[in-house]
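Request: How about a record?
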Amino acid sequence: MPTETTKSIFWQGARDGAPFILVLIPFSTLFGVVATEAGLNILEALTFSVAVLAGAAQFTALQLLSDGAPTTIAIISALAVNLRMALYSASLTPYLGAAPLWQRALAAYFTVDQTYASSILKFADNSHWTLRQRLSYFFGVATPICPMWFLFTVIGALVGASVPDGLALDFAIPITFLALIAPMLRTSAHLAAALVSVIVALISAGLPYNLGLLAAGVAGMMAGAQIEVLTKRRAAISAPGKLL
């Protein structure tokens, strides 16, 4: 088996990240369009994307502000949507936590759904990789993704209202998250969290300011955590005792 170099691993990451461009282009273009419709100029739309770099949170905050929701509610909702980033960071810490501060800060900035989903699966399958190789893969995944998000935010802001309604760019949002989540539903805890969050989101869809999404996120995390605890407890009970 040929030795994997840091450079080759970086390009592995770039190749793994490239397919996400297919859904990121309409996703980021749609954000640019919606941002200009909400009153932002091109520079403000781009600054929003560069500063936040989290599509779901950007859409949430912008939609709430456009609907006249209080700024506090918009900020809290966007932060709640982005709580998953804290979970992503905790999950990546065993693999990247030993990196220098500036590298961890850069990795934190580029931690988005796509870089996390690709990296955590690859790291688990390549436990022999060094820290440098893991970082190379992570930043390789980010390379085709994040610049395209910025570029097509600008393009969406430029074309603005000229995008035909029939083009239905919003299809990219659910497809993006389905493509990310489906391969990661590997355990009963994952499935329980997904199922409970979907059910609660549907039941609470009528709540103002999209508060139903907050309730769904909290309920999903609680369900997943509870199933995880029960699974470990059952495994401990069923494991045969060891006599020394």
Summary: The mean pLDDT is 81.
